[in-house]
Amino acid sequence: MAQVISRAGWGAKPPSRRLDRVTQTRGVKVHYTGGHVPPSIVDDHRRCIELVLSIQRMHMAGGREQPYSDIGYNMVACPHRRIFIGRGPGVIPAANGPGLNTSHYAVLALVGSSGFTQPTDELLHAVLDAVAYLRQHGGAGTEIKGHRDGYATDCPGGPLYAWVKAGAPRPAETKKPTPTETEALVKQLPTLEKGDHGWDVKTVHHLLIARDYGGLDGVDDTTFTAAHEAGVKGLQAAAGLTVDGIVGPRTWPVLLRIA
Questions:
Q1: Do 27 and 101 reside in the same domain of the chain?
Q2: Binning pLDDT at 50, 70 and 90, where does residue 201 land?
Q3: CATH code at position 244
Q4: For residues 57 and 72, is the Cβ–Cβ distance under 8 A?
Q5: Do 140 and 28 fall within a single domain?
Q6: How many domains does the chain have?
Q7: N or C: more exposed end of the chain, with fewer CB within 10 A?
């Protein structure tokens, strides 16, 4: 089950008025952001919190044609398999469309129409964990639908909607390497820093690109440059590691996503 982040945990602003209640729904409708989500969100949970806060601000400021009294979703799922309490269970959402909010709760997946568009297994697990939470605490029924079901919109985007239409299957649980296995793998990898050369630098180069760290266009991918050092420092800062720009035994697992 995903870690649940309370409203206080993500710094939610209080609703501008008392929200209408609901005791049960037919199920849940799944949404996406409809905008650009940077691929690097997968490596930095702080970006998830920032995005949820920005969505609440946008909703309450009238970014969806008219101001909402709170974020429009009941729950938000992020690619770190964490779920944010939005309006929460037992509250009517505002995101499904006129006349469609009392029949289904609304769950937002932090995936966009550009950038990070293909939901990861961890994000899909989080969506289903949010659905389970609403069933347990809010009387949500068995239906899992997309926002576009009954409302003229592209939401929740092609990849996420295809998953919904396939029955929203839960991905297979992936086994992460044990600490011993990770240590054994990392021992086979060299420590790299600015000025180093070789195929292992090429690996770092392309992993940084995959993690959405910029500044590497046209850069030699077999020489560890200042641009690579800057990317590694950004990755280390996002992961809470010592920021030294050196790819060593604590940074390799983060680059390889095995930590």
A1: yes
A2: very high
A3: 1.10.101.10
A4: no
A5: yes
A6: 2
A7: N
Q: How far is the C-alpha of 29 from the C-alpha of 162, rounded, in Å?
A: 14
The runs of H, that is alpha helices, within the chain are 7-10, 45-61, 121-138, 158-165, 179-187, 199-210, 226-239, 251-255
Structure confidence at residue 175 (pLDDT): 63
Say yes or no to pLDDT of 80 above 90. yes
The torsion angles phi and psi of 3, rounded to 5 degrees, stand at -70, 135
Residues 6+ apart with CB under 8 A from 203: none
CA–CA separation, 94 vs 72, rounded Å?
Answer: 5
* pLDDT of residue 173 exceeding 80: no
Residue 76 neighbours by CB under 8 Å, 6+ apart:
52, 55, 83, 84, 86, 107, 108, 109, 110, 130
Per the domain annotation, does 171 fall within a domain?
Answer: no
Percent of the chain with pLDDT over 70: 96
Burial annotation 197-236 (CB, 10 A radius, 16+ → b, else e): eeebbebbbebbbebbbeebeeeebebbbebbbbbbbbbb
**Same domain assignment for residues 158 and 184:** no
